[in-house]
Amino acid sequence: MSTGKPLPHDAAPLHVTGAARYVDDIPAPAGTLSLAFGTSSVARGRLGAMDLSGVRAAPGVVAVLTAEDLPFANDVSPSIHDEPLLATDRVHFVGQPLFLVVAETHLAARKAARRGKVEIDEETPILTVDEALAANSRFEGGPVIWTKGDAETAIAAAPHRVEGSFEVGGQEHFYLEGQAALALPQDGGEMVVHSSTQHPTEIQHKVAEALGLPMHAVRVETRRMGGGFGGKESQGNALAVSCAVAARLTGRPCRMRYDRDDDMVITGKRHDLRIDYRAGFDDTGRLLGVDFRHLMRCGWSQDLSLPVADRAMLHADNAYLLDHIRIESHRLKTNTCSATAFRGFGGPQGMVGIERVVDHVAHALGLDPLAVRRVNYYADAAADEAAGGLSAPRLTAPPEDISETKEDLTSRGGPAERVSVAPARGQSTPYGMAVEDFVLNAMTDQLASGCDYAGRREAVAAWNAREPVLKRGIALTPVKFGISFTLTHLNQAGALVHVYQDGSVQVNHGGTEMGQGLYQKVAQVAAESFGVPMDVVKVTATDTGKVPNTSATAASSGSDLNGMAVKAACDTIRDRIAACLGELHQIAPAKVVFADGEVTAGGEVISFTRAAQIAYENRVSLSSTGYYKTPGLAWDRVKGQGRPFFYFAHGAACSEVVIDTLTGEYRILRTDILHDVGRSLNPALDIGQIEGGFVQGAGWLTTEELVWDDRGRLRTHAPSTYKIPACGDRPEIFNVALWDGENRAETIYRSKAVGEPPFMLGISVLMALSDAVAACGSAYPALDAPATPERVLAAVDRVRHG
């Protein structure tokens, strides 16, 4: 068995020794040129004359291009062709590319770009959601509204009501490797592009469009990225197109990379938003009606904002059965960099909204927030169904320390109570999708028991009663995250697998590797199918010339889609070999067994290498494509109804924090996580994704603050001013355990996606901070995010003094 083993990342030795090759590390051919943009220093205005004579005269400059010099399409948008590579008559944000410098070196290009003299008739920018609302500056004709039941009537009739509004900030991707591309001109005007991208086919499409070529004349290769997080789904288009256009113009290879400041100023970020809410509820905290208004700042171009905003709406229920809900979403156009995909793709924004509502309700009633969460949960699937394929409870508690995960965890406490209640008939999401695989009641039982939530909550209350300055808070929050692209046709993947005469296996697929371990998991799938050791399998760089029409490696679907496509290709080749050996041994192909690097047929045991040789000698094809499309999806975006997801991934996290009420500073004392990955393909990689996702999610809601000034200039554009979580920001005690169960859906070996869902476990930290602030007085904390020390201190003052 190759799947299910905690194997290390295939490139781990290369990563830790610095030997891993990224796009900017590729040895450049002689004569390679470097590129840099000249950008706007104004957020909004009419573009006037550009004096670029000083740029052209700068040392090392070979060419300077403006929009008029582009041979074909001046567009790098992933959606509606509203994002020119180089500005034409207007500028829309600080950092918008105006001209392109082609020079002998990277430094020469950057220096020359600063010499441009550009006249811009500056206008007052639209920077905030309130300004955009006042100007009716938006995408789509008006707000998108989805409803279930009658929220207005339910809220009005409820015995209790709360309402509020809170700000949720954006987030910089801060991938370690910045955006980069290298274009190599070929015979006949064709182009090869190396790009740090999550979406090679989109790069291929945009480059072909810019050069006036068919897509078959452009080949894009991506071996690895140094992080992506959604920031390399569409944001690499500009660099790849620039390199290709310059390479066509000069006949020389061209490369481009952003320095960190340029990367942060030019590229998109997570969508920030304001969430207005109203909710009606009963004495137990059960939500009777909820009304949300999402005011999402999308930036200057559409990019991927519509599906991001849609997914925020799709996750507005999180883990809660809501009979009456109304969600109104405004997609607002502002003079800031265009917001884009980021891990969770709107899901975190939608989820944090309902968690804020639940927290507010619990405070209003004086109840434990976990009790309010649980009274609103969907019902779990029946235990007998779980045995047939639904996730089933792991009867162990999480360890007290992450270093103890190899111990027999049953020694840490008794078994969690098994929940066997059948799901309520007709329980469905606000968008009409049946919830049939819910397991969070049982997961919450296990996590709360294993981390001693009840005992620690009592201890927190006792601490807060006696300590005047340092206050503690604790929160346990759930995650129910839908897996699939909401644009249904993207849920497909292809693969190309070769078996050579020496028994070695080459795997090509459409997914991209950005550190998440996709290549390793896919290699494990191939090794499992052929029954060979891992060192026999090689996964090559993602290449549009080998696997065409790929979807982005996004939506947490990399393993689901590409793993199934690779398995289909491997199974085809294996079946061919089995048929060949079956014929030679006069047995049924089904009786040919592949295991442990050997093949058994008719009592004869031979090596897999010999089996491949025999098949080749008998003229059997040892190469096959594989294809997979996710079944059962149907989504009507206009109506907001259907089945957009193949299944749900679940998780829960309990975090405890302490705040200093004199300074607003805080620490995460402990976090316990129980996460559902189905039947894990690789537990080591999955736990790594859970740990990293949690820290990144907590960072979004605590330390990572994006600040624009009143002229639309990003002031937090470097590590000195933008604070991603550091080692000291991780929980002092950090426990992660995997839920013991398999996916009900027929995914690759019954595994579940693990890329995005853990990100939202970080919401537990924000709720714990709210709990700690609430200990300072009687008012509700109303804590905005990110909950920086300044905001925590302001909330403490609010709670104490009203």
UniProtKB/TrEMBL annotation:
InterPro entries, A to Z: Ald_Oxase/Xan_DH_a/b, Ald_Oxase/Xan_DH_a/b_sf, Ald_Oxase/xanthine_DH-like, AldOxase/xan_DH_MoCoBD1, AldOxase/xan_DH_MoCoBD2, AldOxase/xan_DH_Mopterin-bd_sf, Xanthine_DH_Mopterin-bd_su
Location within or outside the cell: Periplasm
SUPFAM superfamilies for this protein: CO dehydrogenase molybdoprotein N-domain-like, Molybdenum cofactor-binding domain
Cofactor: Mo-molybdopterin cytosine dinucleotide
Its job: Oxidizes aldehydes to the corresponding carboxylic acids with a preference for aromatic aldehydes. It might play a role in the detoxification of aldehydes to avoid cell damage.
Reactions listed under catalytic activity: an aldehyde + A + H2O = a carboxylate + AH2 + H(+)
Any Pfam family matching the protein: MoCoBD_2
Ranges annotated as spanning the membrane: none
Ranges where the record places region Disordered: 390-425
Keyword line: Metal-binding, Molybdenum, Oxidoreductase, Periplasm
Molecular function in Gene Ontology: carboxylate reductase activity; iron ion binding; molybdenum ion binding
UniProt-listed Gene3D superfamilies: Aldehyde oxidase/xanthine dehydrogenase, a/b hammerhead, Aldehyde oxidase/xanthine dehydrogenase, molybdopterin binding domain
Protein name as it appears in the record: Aldehyde oxidoreductase molybdenum-binding subunit PaoC
Main location: periplasm
Subunit structure, as described in the record: Heterotrimer composed of PaoA, PaoB and PaoC.
Family per record: Belongs to the xanthine dehydrogenase family.
EC number per UniProt: 1.2.99.6
GO cellular component: periplasmic space
Domain Aldehyde oxidase/xanthine dehydrogenase a/b hammerhead per the UniProt entry, residue ranges: 17-124
